[in-house]
Amino acid sequence: MHELDGSDAGGQFLRTALSLSAVRGEAVRLENVRGGRSNPGLRPQHLAVLETLAEICDADVSGNELGAETVAFDPGAVTVTGGQYSVEIDTAGSVTLLFDALLPLVTRLESPLSVTATGGTDVAWSPPMDYYRYVKLPLLRRFGLEAAVELDRRGFYPTGGGRATLRLSPSTLAPIRLGEERRTNPEPDYVRVYSTEAAALADSDVASRQAGGALEALSRALGDHDHDHDHDLTVRDRVETTAESACPGSAVVLRIDGSNTIAGFTALGEPGKRAERVGEEAADAAKRFLASDAPVDRHMADQLLVFLALAGGRVKIPTVTDHVDSSLALLESMGDELIVDREELVVSRENA
């Protein structure tokens, strides 16, 4: 039984602990769940993760109720038989964060696993669905992860109601090596932009304006210092989608492709915020990334740590965020110590 304390952490601490417990067949007990948040304890999306993993792994669980600040999880077996499951997350709880907790199961699956979830697909404090489908999963597939997501319906805050299915197949992960060759070219080989609007916003051309704002801002950022002319971006994909949804909302995702690089940058629409500004926010994050020599964005850096623990490898990251520090501490407490070079911003583990 691993005894863990989430006093200074949030939901990701819980999700990663449960994922590793399920994969390793080792029980965990978490005190002060989400103690670092203003509303500690299990919220709907965290409860959904706990109950879904418990059902898939036939685990013994305590503390599986809203608001619980102490949780125990004891998986029934190291292997996972697969099958089909359905999950409903109340309100606009994040579907992509639920899926995140399930991805490591590929290393223990005996047969394909399918999980259909209803909730928020494009909501704050979590990866938008297009980041998940077009940035994270393509990067992980390079290292052997067999996973795909089918999106049936978008769900924005506050109503949610989105619906998507994660399909996982038994996978053998290769060591994750990113950044061993230094990225010296600050310009992307090409970019992709995925912009989505709820049908209620179609008359305002929100998706088109978000995409245009993102590409124009990124082009300006890559131009001459005096901005006399714009950089000629190579746009591989410009996908604008109008989606049926239970409430209005919008999202934009910029994907940067380069040598040894897949990185994503996102922004969500808000009441009163111009669609062009939403796109510019994603471009601003991309600009900061391109000024570094890291091969992945700051959010992906954190999300890759559990896969480094499982498969080994070496990843150059853009910065050591609080989430990175929290994840490193959790992994160490569960026996998966990663080596961190804080000067060179490299995280590694050999012989996982």
From TrEMBL:
- Under which EC number(s) is this enzyme classified? 6.5.1.4
Query: Quick one: which residues bind ATP?
Result: 100, 299-303
Instruction: Could you list this entry's UniProt keywords, alphabetically sorted.
Output: ATP-binding, Cytoplasm, Ligase, Nucleotide-binding
Localization, UniProt: Cytoplasm
Domain RNA 3'-terminal phosphate cyclase residues, every copy: 9-334
The record, for SUPFAM superfamilies, names: EPT/RTPC-like, RNA 3'-terminal phosphate cyclase, RPTC, insert domain
RNA 3'-terminal phosphate cyclase insert domain ranges (all copies)? 192-289
> What terms describe the molecular function in GO for this protein?
RNA-3'-phosphate cyclase activity
| Catalytic activity line of the entry | a 3'-end 3'-phospho-ribonucleotide-RNA + ATP = a 3'-end 2',3'-cyclophospho-ribonucleotide-RNA + AMP + diphosphate
Q: Which residues form the active site?
A: 323
- Please give the function described in this protein's UniProt entry: Catalyzes the conversion of 3'-phosphate to a 2',3'-cyclic phosphodiester at the end of RNA. The mechanism of action of the enzyme occurs in 3 steps: (A) adenylation of the enzyme by ATP; (B) transfer of adenylate to an RNA-N3'P to produce RNA-N3'PP5'A; (C) and attack of the adjacent 2'-hydroxyl on the 3'-phosphorus in the diester linkage to produce the cyclic end product. The biological role of this enzyme is unknown but it is likely to function in some aspects of cellular RNA processing.
Family listed? Belongs to the RNA 3'-terminal cyclase family. Type 1 subfamily.
**What HAMAP family does the record point to?**
RTC
> What is this protein called in UniProt?
RNA 3'-terminal phosphate cyclase
Which species is this UniProt entry from?
A: Natronoglomus mannanivorans
Q: Provide the gene name from the record.
A: rtcA
